[in-house]
Every structure is written in C-alpha cells, then in structure tokens.
Amino acid sequence: MQTARLSITGMDHEGCADVLTEVLERVRGVATVCVSLARNDATVQFDETVAPRERLLDAVIDAVNRAGFIGELELAQAPAASSATRHTMAPHLAQ
C-alpha cells in the first residue's frame, strides 16, 4: 500500500468532508480515506497493484475536483486521527 496526502480547498463544513470521503472511497484502488475539515486535507491509502501510482493519484485528484473541491498533492505521510477526521475503509476492500 502507498499513502498520499492532498491539500483540499473548498471544504467549509463537516458535510463537505463526508461527501469527499464517499467520493474518494469510490475510486478504484483506494483502500482507506481520511478527510480532515480542520486541516483541509485528505489522506488516501491505495493499492499500487491496481494501477501505476501516477494513474491512481490522477484519479484521486480528478475525483476531488469533480466533487467541487480543489485537491493538490502533498507529502506522502498520514496525519494522526482526530475527532474532526473521517477515517473509513473503502467498502469494496472491507471484508
């Protein structure tokens, strides 16, 4: 698994974080999603065996943008979870 963190612009309430979490969970290859309204970021873990890293990152950023937000790639490190963070396992990988 690989991890990527994105800076997210355009989230202004918890509903935005919820929507973005759902959108990112639907991206093929994404295993886990952690969206933080407080930090204005999203951390995704993805399975690089599904597609090359660059293609997966493009798909993640495209999904963020199609949802009405702006996503930019940051350093690949996961932040610590907080109460304002949504952290879920993508349904197609939870077994």
TrEMBL record:
Bilayer-crossing regions: none
Example of a GO MF term: metal ion binding
PROSITE patterns: HMA_2 (PS50846)
Gene3D superfamilies listed in its UniProt record: 3.30.70.100
EC numbers on record: 3.6.3.54
Domain of life where this protein originates: Bacteria
CDD domains the record matches: HMA
Keyword Hydrolase appears in the UniProt entry: yes
Cell cycle in keyword set: no
Keywords: Hydrolase
Domain HMA span(s) in chain numbering: 2-72
Cross-referenced SUPFAM superfamilies: HMA, heavy metal-associated domain
Xref: InterPro entries: HMA_dom (IPR006121), HMA_dom_sf (IPR036163)
UniProt name for this protein: Copper chaperone/Cu+-exporting ATPase
Organism expressing this protein natively: Janthinobacterium psychrotolerans
